[in-house]
């Protein structure tokens, strides 16, 4: 690199220098929508995903200094422990936001920021919005400009550095301290896509908890004077060489950084399943609606899959009859069958009981994959195609175009409020409708809030 500073330094300078007044309206709006969405999903997971209980029990039993709240469950624990628990909740339903290019910044970013805000106190809405926008922006720029081969989990190996930068902003660290925090975090960062592709897991969302915990610890260590390392990203054994074989584009990562904010394109899930399944879910729902399809009329269902989606149909027997809720959310046979039968999808549709629904399992058994490279995932999430053959000889097909929750059909504030309410009503906190409305209103006008712990008081 010669005399050019490692990429960690300009990224840290961006994080340390951006203020609320520098943010365009769309970036502010995206940050607030992400906060509403992530909080809602955390609350929903507290009541709907039994696999989070061991994490909550572990954190609660360990105890420690009462610094930050666990959403939905209440009680205070050390900030890093709260970030771990809340991050696990945030990705526990696979219902959290993502970039238009895939991967999940918010489910680790926002729990880490909320834990630090709770610990520190006196954090304003403007400061929280700014930190979220910083984290989203750096995540997107890194995600889109590295050569990814579906090996490392991008949400982990990219999200830790954008998360640390955001946390550093929230705590008012200098650019030098933020660069050190990134280096510290690198010693505990990783995770491969096998956690996504493999079956049998009951909580893939655990990785978001680990990222959030790591981000909090690294930032606090840097604040206390611990040093990181030089040449973190571009050194001889730096992040880009180790994780991405040296395939990255520095110029695009830094292009107009601080002037253009790509985070305005954040997307929010309409359905509680892996994002790559949404085009298939949408196609199935619309096919059933447009043709008035009844399950008993269906002879066969074909799903056309590319390189990534192919993993959601293999091994086919396990995908047709998933053993865990998390496997069901990653199964194309199960999600497509559920969509065809119910014509919609809510968090309540994924439960231990739903895994044994004979109607869904019978239709899932009729789903067969067809590999088609036209549906490969390059950078943009690919479309999906569903084809139904009926017993009376009809062949009906549909692509999942204009999917709700995508840039082509973004979710409105009203739809996000409805999703938040659905999740909040399912939480262990048993939130009253009036409390839900107050939380929604507070987030919508968050820039005018002088103390964000008021929001945490409503939701824990």
UniProtKB/TrEMBL annotation:
Residues 11-247 form the MmgE/PrpD N-terminal domain. It comes from the Bacteria. Coiled coil: none annotated. Residues 271-434 form the MmgE/PrpD C-terminal domain. Pfam families: MmgE_PrpD_C, MmgE_PrpD_N. One of its GO terms (molecular function) is lyase activity. PANTHER family: 2-METHYLCITRATE DEHYDRATASE, 2-METHYLCITRATE DEHYDRATASE-RELATED. Belongs to the PrpD family. This is MmgE/PrpD family protein. It comes from Pseudarthrobacter phenanthrenivorans. The lineage of its organism: Bacteria, Bacillati, Actinomycetota, Actinomycetes, Micrococcales.
